[in-house]
Amino acid sequence: MHETPPPPLPDQSKAPEGKPERLYLVGSIGPHIGFHTTKDGKRVARFRLSVRDEDGSTQWHTVKAYGERAEILEAARRKGSMTEGTEVELVGYGHYRRHRGKGNPERVVAEIYVDTLTCRRER
Predict the structure, then answer these.
(1) 71-81 per-position pLDDT tens digit
(2) Which residues pair with 116 in a beta bridge?
(3) Count of domains forming the chain
(4) Contact 36, 23 (CB under 8 A)
(5) Which domain holds residue 94?
(6) Residue 89 belongs to a domain with what CATH number?
(7) What percentage of the chain reaches a pLDDT higher than 70?
(8) Residue range 31-58, pLDDT digits in tens
(9) Are 49 and 25 in contact (CB under 8 A)?
(10) DSSP output for 67-99
């Protein structure tokens, strides 16, 4: 059985300076914010962000925060200020990686890595 090779990774949206392009998004936090710790002890937060487009459609983005940013998000979650439906303003960087689920072919996953995250309005 021959396995189809994975698709090439998309261009990482490099700005002219060679750094990943900054993304500015305003949206609402999805229903689940997950937290875990990496093998080297770094905290990671992962959540979905819904962004309403001008045409009324909704785009969903996977967002990750690492280290101190994840710890701040976790503390805000415990206080109840970062819950499903909370409107946030996010500045981050687009990132692509390869992922293979159990028994599934390899695929390309798009994520946004948080630089700053500001709560605009709680639900």
Answers:
(1) 999 999 999 88
(2) 91
(3) 1
(4) no
(5) 30-121
(6) 2.40.50.140
(7) 82
(8) 999 999 999 999 999 999 999 999 999 9
(9) yes
(10) THHHHHHHHHHHHTSS-TT-EEEEEEEEEEEEE
